[in-house]
């Protein structure tokens, strides 16, 4: 999954021959999972039609403040467009538009939207060689970047005039790649490796039966997605779960038993910066596993159980510089049990939730948590979706990493 997935992208198109490339650029943004809206300068419609871009973006394309032929038409709100976007890109960015952006000239909807944008703004210059080399253009490049705008460099090649040199707008694939890399470089968990466990474990009784629990894995998977979206390389060790995830930063390792999860965690633990153990690991397993299906009989069946290895405690015992986060799902004496777990297992923090809280626990889409620190300071959160809860957890971890 691209880091552009779910992003709101505002594409500004100006009047350069490279405008024909914007059709493919819109398509690639959509393919990356972004939502796209397009604003055009009036003159750019001579190079690519609004119909093409509206069809590809699945959104109306605006080029004027209002439709002069429709007296009932509402104005196109440039402020609303500028605030809507997570990022704005002007491509192609002609010498004319770049100069206006530099000087705050505001004589069309695109420029008004640019001046209203609160998000990162990228620009991809496109012009002929002599224009590209002109000192005034260089001044525009420097000033726009000093304002915080991000330049996507032009490439060299054959230009519309027949000259060969700098000034070609970067190809759509390269623009997407540039923006993705720029976003990743600024993410708070970039360069961090995170181990996350999720779901239940199944402990075999015989070839067809097992001891397990009701964990769905939703919480762990949401934590994995949030961490990956913030730049982390994630190792997701999952017990049996119907949850799915597609993200280029997430490596999923599927296991069944507590022993398999133990081995997987120890395989990756030494190389990670953070370990978040949200899985509901079985505390006991059958001491003897039948090789054949146990037949039903009238007499009662007794199964001798033995403890599984305590994964969280074992990681706490070998912890070096890792930030170790545990989970506690309790039914009584919640806070006391969670604090005891912090000390016994050498944790840096624990995420506590109680089955007594409505909407919390297994197989729900919501959760209500309290995060308790190693010094027993605590922070309580309201009932939220597990996606939002995952953000609260990761934000607390980021604060600890930056402390």
From TrEMBL:
GO MF, one example = sulfinoalanine decarboxylase activity
- Binding locations of CTP: 283, 293, 327, 341, 345
Q: Where is the DNA/pantothenate metabolism flavoprotein C-terminal domain?
A: 189-399
Q: Supply the alphabetized keyword list.
A: Decarboxylase, Flavoprotein, FMN, Ligase, Lyase, Magnesium, Metal-binding, Multifunctional enzyme
- List the cofactors: Mg(2+); FMN
Q: State the source organism's domain of life.
A: Bacteria
Question: What note does UniProt attach to the cofactor annotation?
Answer: Binds 1 FMN per subunit.
Enumerate the residue ranges of region (Phosphopantothenoylcysteine decarboxylase).
1-193
Q: Quick one: where's region Phosphopantothenate--cysteine ligase?
A: 194-403
**Which pathway is recorded for this entry?**
Cofactor biosynthesis; coenzyme A biosynthesis; CoA from (R)-pantothenate: step 3/5; Cofactor biosynthesis; coenzyme A biosynthesis; CoA from (R)-pantothenate: step 2/5
InterPro entries, per database record: CoaB-like_sf, CoaBC, DNA/pantothenate-metab_flavo_C, Flavin_trans-like, Flavoprotein
What family, per the record? In the C-terminal section; belongs to the PPC synthetase family.
* Function in brief: Catalyzes two sequential steps in the biosynthesis of coenzyme A. In the first step cysteine is conjugated to 4'-phosphopantothenate to form 4-phosphopantothenoylcysteine. In the second step the latter compound is decarboxylated to form 4'-phosphopantotheine. Catalyzes two steps in the biosynthesis of coenzyme A. In the first step cysteine is conjugated to 4'-phosphopantothenate to form 4-phosphopantothenoylcysteine, in the latter compound is decarboxylated to form 4'-phosphopantotheine.
Name listed for the protein in its UniProt record: Coenzyme A biosynthesis bifunctional protein CoaBC
């Amino acid at each position: 999954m691209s880091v552009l997935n779910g992003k709101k992208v505002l594409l500004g198109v100006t009047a350069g021959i490279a405008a024909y490339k914007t059709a493919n650029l819109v398509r690639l943004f959509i393919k990356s999972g972004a939502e796209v809206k397009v604003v055009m300068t009036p003159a750019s419609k001579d190079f690519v039609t609004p119909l093409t871009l509206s069809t590809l973006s699945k959104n109306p394309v605006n080029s004027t403040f209002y439709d002069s032929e429709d007296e009932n038409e509402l104005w196109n709100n440039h402020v609303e467009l500028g605030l809507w976007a997570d990022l704005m890109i002007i491509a192609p960015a002609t010498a004319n538009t770049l100069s206006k952006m530099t000087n705050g000239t505001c004589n069309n909807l695109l420029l008004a939207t640019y001046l209203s944008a609160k998000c990162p703004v990228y620009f991809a210059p496109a012009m002929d060689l002599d224009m590209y080399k002109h000192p005034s253009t260089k001044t525009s490049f420097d000033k726009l970047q000093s304002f915080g705008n991000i330049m996507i460099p032009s490439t060299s090649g054959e230009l519309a005039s027949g000259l060969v040199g700098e000034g070609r707008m970067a190809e759509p694939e390269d623009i997407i790649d540039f923006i993705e890399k720029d976003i990743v470089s600024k993410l708070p968990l970039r360069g961090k490796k995170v181990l996350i466990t999720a779901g239940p474990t199944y402990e075999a009784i015989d070839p067809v039966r097992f001891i397990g629990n009701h964990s769905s894995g939703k919480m762990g998977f949401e934590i994995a997605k949030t961490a990956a979206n913030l730049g982390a390389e994630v190792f997701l060790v999952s017990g049996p779960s119907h949850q799915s995830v597609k993200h280029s930063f997430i490596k999923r390792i599927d296991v069944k038993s507590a022993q398999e999860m133990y081995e997987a965690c120890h395989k990756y633990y030494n190389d990670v910066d953070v370990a978040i153990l949200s899985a509901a690991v079985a505390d006991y397993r059958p001491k003897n596993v039948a090789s054949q299906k146990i037949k039903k009989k009238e007499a009662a069946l007794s199964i001798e159980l033995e403890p599984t290895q305590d994964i969280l405690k074992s990681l706490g015992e070998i912890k070096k510089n890792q930030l170790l986060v545990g989970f506690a799902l309790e039914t009584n004496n919640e806070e006391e049990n969670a604090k005891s777990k912090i000390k016994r297992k050498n944790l840096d923090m624990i995420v506590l939730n109680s089955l007594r809280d409505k909407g919390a626990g297994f197989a729900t889409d919501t959760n209500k948590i309290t995060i308790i620190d190693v010094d027993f300071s605590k922070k309580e959160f309201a009932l939220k979706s597990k996606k939002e809860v995952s953000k609260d957890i990761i934000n607390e971890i980021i604060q600890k990493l930056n402390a």
